[in-house]
């Protein structure tokens, strides 16, 4: 028996279980009422607990919880308590009022208990909070049947805007008078759809816009265009609210020209708003940096986009913020909300006495090992003068690989920065274009257990960090667990995937490359690579497998004619399929940047500029 492979499979299954339990720089790039067909929907356990609390001095306010819409027909039976507790105090309050969502309607009565999390579900970006990108319960698609003869495009589910967020999937959900596999799709027109994942039928659709609002304009910035609504991949928790909840962050513009960022929780079966939401996102943090007033940096919703995907960890939703085309002033924000109440629990600014340090990662989500949070931020102020603990003296962490503690509130627990970080940041060759991947634990050649994470950015070097001692900063050399230079052919705009002791990177202008992990070290050169290169912005791969067998690496290729590719995970040189092999039969129009394919239950879903392309066995 291959115990290394078995341990990694068990690690992935543990992550899926944990997610069900907790449920948890610069980027390069009209409201309507909701409708739903309601049927019998079971009641759920309602969660309690406040999650992580705010740090001293961080803003805890944000939040008028008012909503103009209401849902009907939802049953609120069920008792119980949920997870996530926290303690701590915080000074300062943030202002803000929440405007309403469109009203949701849905009939039906119900009772009983909420269905348990299904092993076929995809409830968060890249499959789990470690962001491994591996879907290990795929029993239909195999290297033997994924080919142009047996596999291809099954349909196209049109929606009202660009799908920049990864679609999410729930298997066997009681909804709309029956049981459906449900695809949740968020759009840049500020809409959320629940679609039958097998037919494309709309089960419900809601707008997150308040009365008289439109999606935000693009600020004359082509990165997210022509409108900005919901950009970040949402997150789902089956255990919260009467029937489970999907959490989304949406941007809008009101009739007076004001901009809004709000966090919403929507009922999985009706789309109705939950927990008194939405909550207006507002925050402040001690500092004298960009957009500071009287010693506090203030969050301006006009200046920011929520590009990185939402993280749900131990009952708390974590959001991270980037700029529009580097328009000043901006800084790096992480803002957290209780999944039970939508009340703000904690705020952290990464450049409170400087600027920059945005969090965007080409749409990837902040990663977690179940306790701490890991990510890379973009170019911005860094204090090369360190205090006694090795931290930047003024608290500015631009262009870093970061580890955050979450209790009693958000704080930087550790970091790694390259020796030439100041020069690279000034040249816009920062880490923040790439996402972090938390690896399973490995034992090195000396028998020492290593807890690692990996990421890369615009300088094309791969950095493997020790999560227990990340390396901090030294102007003379890099103190990092492992550095693999010169093997990625371009900058990384996206994130890698992990499967069976392999890490798969897809940088700009380069093939997707597989690096093997052995003895807790990444191979210094790829062990296989795809026969084709990927142009801008590269590729963020995903993996489907049945446990440790039948591994397939999937990737979306951007372009005027986009393409879905599939490769043998054990040997990337073996391309199994691409959507251009059968002429126009499987083509699905122009590409959409930063898209990662989502695989679930025998189908592959790819977000586009106006819908979702669906692939499977023909």
CATH level-3 fold name: Methylamine Dehydrogenase, Chain H
Q: What is the total tally of β strands? A: 43
Overall 3D shape: globular
Second CATH tier, the architecture:
7 Propeller
* Mean pLDDT reading: 86
SS-derived structural category: mainly beta
What is the fourth-level CATH superfamily? YVTN repeat-like/Quinoprotein amine dehydrogenase
Give the % helix.
under 10%
The CA-CA distance between the termini, in Å, is: 35 Å
Low-confidence stretches: 1-113
Task: Give a short account of the largest sheet.
Answer: 6 strands, antiparallel
Tell me the radius of gyration. 22 Å
* Quaternary status: single chain
Give the domain tally: 1
Strand content: 25-35%
CATH class: Mainly Beta
Brief synopsis:
The chain is mainly beta. It contains 2 helices and 43 strands.
What can you see in these coordinates?
It is built from two helices and 43 strands. With 618 residues, it is mostly beta strands. The protein has one domain (3-617): Methylamine Dehydrogenase, Chain H (7 Propeller), CATH 2.130.10. Strands 8, 9, 10, 11, 12 and 13 form a six-stranded antiparallel sheet that branches. InterPro entries: PQQ_b-propeller_rpt (IPR018391), Quinoprotein_ADH-like_sf (IPR011047), WD40/YVTN_repeat-like_dom_sf (IPR015943).
Topology, please?
Layout lengths: L2 H21 L11 E2 L97 E2 L15 E8 L9 E8 L2 E9 L4 E6 L5 E6 L6 E4 L9 E2 L6 E3 L7 E9 L5 E9 L11 E2 L3 E3 L5 E2 L2 E3 L5 E2 L5 E3 L2 E8 L9 E6 L5 E6 L17 E2 L4 E4 L24 E5 L5 E6 L4 H6 L10 E2 L3 E2 L5 E2 L1 E5 L5 E5 L15 E3 L12 E3 L2 E4 L7 E6 L2 E2 L5 E2 L12 E5 L2 E9 L5 E6 L2 E8 L19 E3 L2 E5 L3 E7 L1
């Amino acid at each position: 028996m291959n115990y290394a492979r078995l341990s990694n499979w068990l690690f992935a299954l543990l992550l899926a279980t944990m997610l069900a339990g907790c449920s948890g720089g610069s980027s390069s790039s009209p409201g309507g009422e909701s409708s739903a067909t309601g049927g019998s929907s079971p009641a759920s356990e309602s969660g309690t607990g406040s999650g992580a609390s705010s740090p001293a001095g961080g803003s805890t306010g944000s939040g008028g919880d008012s909503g103009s819409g209401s849902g009907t027909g939802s049953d609120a039976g069920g008792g119980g308590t949920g997870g996530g507790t926290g303690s701590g105090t915080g000074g300062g309050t943030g202002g803000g009022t929440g405007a309403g969502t469109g009203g949701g309607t849905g009939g039906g009565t119900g009772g009983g208990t909420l269905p348990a999390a299904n092993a076929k579900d995809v409830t968060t970006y890249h499959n789990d909070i470690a962001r491994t990108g591996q879907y290990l319960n795929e029993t239909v698609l195999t290297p033997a049947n994924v080919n142009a003869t047996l596999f291809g495009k099954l349909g196209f589910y049109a929606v009202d805007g660009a799908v920049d967020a990864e679609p999410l999937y729930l298997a066997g959900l009681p909804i709309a008078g029956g049981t459906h596999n449900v695809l949740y799709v968020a759009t840049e027109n500020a809409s959320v759809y629940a679609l039958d994942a097998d037919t494309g039928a709309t089960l419900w659709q809601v707008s997150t816009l308040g009365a008289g609002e439109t999606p935000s304009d693009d600020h004359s910035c082509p990165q997210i265009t022509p409108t900005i609504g919901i950009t970040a991949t949402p997150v789902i928790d089956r255990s919260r609210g009467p029937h489970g909840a999907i959490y989304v962050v949406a941007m809008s513009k009101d009739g007076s020209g004001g901009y809004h960022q709000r966090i919403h929780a929507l009922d999985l079966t009706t789309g109705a708003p939950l927990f008194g939401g939405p909550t207006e996102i507002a925050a402040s943090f001690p500092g004298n940096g960009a957009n500071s007033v009287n010693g506090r940096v203030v969050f301006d919703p006009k200046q920011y986009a929520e590009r990185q995907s939402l993280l749900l960890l131990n009952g708390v939703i974590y959001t991270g913020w980037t700029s529009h085309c580097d328009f000043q002033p901006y800084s790096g924000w992480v803002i957290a909300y209780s999944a039970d109440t939508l009340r703000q629990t904690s705020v952290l600014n990464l450049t409170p006495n400087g600027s920059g340090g945005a969090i965007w990662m080409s749409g990837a989500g902040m990663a977690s090992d179940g306790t701490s949070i890991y990510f890379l931020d973009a170019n911005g102020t860094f204090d090369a003068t360190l205090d006694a603990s090795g931290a930047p003296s003024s608290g500015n962490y631009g262009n870093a690989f970061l580890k955050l503690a979450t209790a009693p509130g958000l704080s930087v627990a550790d970091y790694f920065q390259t020796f030439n970080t100041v020069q690279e940041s000034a040249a816009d060759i920062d880490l923040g274009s790439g996402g972090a991947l938390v690896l399973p634990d490995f034992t090195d050649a000396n028998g020492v257990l290593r807890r690692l994470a990996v990421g890369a950015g615009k300088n094309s070097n791969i950095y493997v960090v020790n999560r227990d001692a990340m390396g901090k900063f030294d102007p003379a050399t890099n103190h990092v667990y492992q550095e693999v230079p010169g093997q990625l052919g371009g900058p990384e705009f996206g994130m890698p995937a992990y499967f069976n002791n392999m890490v798969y990177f897809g940088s700009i202008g380069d093939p997707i490359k597989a690096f093997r992990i052995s003895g807790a070290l990444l191979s210094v050169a790829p062990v296989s690579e795809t026969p084709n290169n990927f142009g801008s912005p590269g590729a963020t791969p995903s993996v489907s497998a049945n446990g440790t067998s039948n591994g397939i690496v999937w990737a979306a290729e951007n372009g005027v004619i986009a393409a879905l590719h599939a490769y043998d995970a054990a040997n990337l040189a073996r391309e199994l399929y691409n959507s251009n092999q059968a002429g126009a039969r499987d083509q699905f129009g122009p590409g959409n940047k930063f898209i990662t394919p989502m695989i679930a239950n025998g189908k592959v879903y790819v977000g586009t500029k106006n819908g979702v392309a669906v692939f499977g066995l023909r």
